[in-house]
Amino acid sequence: QVQLVESGGGLVQAGGSLRLSCAASGQTFNSYVLGWFRQAPGKERQFVAAISRNSVITDYSDSVKGRFTISRDNAKNTAYLQMNSLKPEDTAVYYCSAARRSYAYSTSRSLSDYDYWGQGTQVTVSA
């Protein structure tokens, strides 16, 4: 069992930056792929970024590539999402998620692959 708690959301102007954190407790953090997803009002939850257990492999949606950076600190049981050059269309609730994987280089874009989810943190980008 893994408990995930996101923080760092808020209101920012377009072009600004935010850093989201995802603190994990429970079983061994470095056994899990970490992912970030987001859900805007009236829309489905969508993939944003993922990072492998060993941090070697990262993956991003096309909409955030070059602006967002995912990272993790296994010693601190924490994952991060650095968001730069924010746009109004980035406005959503952002969720951290974890998927247990035996292969250290795995990532995933599929919601159904993730076993654990945080409660979400709101990010609002004003024009």
Estimate the mean pLDDT confidence. Answer: 96
Derived from helix and strand composition plus strand pairing, the structural class reads mainly beta
The total count of strands amounts to 11
Q: N- to C-terminal separation?
A: 40 Å
Number of helices: 0
Helix content: under 10%
Account of the 3D structure:
It is a single chain. The chain is mainly beta and 127 residues long. The protein has no helices and eleven strands. The chain is 0% helix and 51% strand.
Topology (elements, then pairings):
Elements: E1 2-7, E2 10-13, E3 18-26, E4 32-39, E5 46-51, E6 58-60, E7 68-73, E8 78-83, E9 92-100, E10 116-117, E11 121-126
Parallel strand pairs: 2-11
Antiparallel strand pairs: 1-3, 3-8, 4-5, 4-9, 5-6, 7-8, 9-10, 9-11
Quickly list its features.
127 residues; mainly beta; 7-stranded mixed beta sheet; 4-stranded antiparallel beta sheet; 0% helix
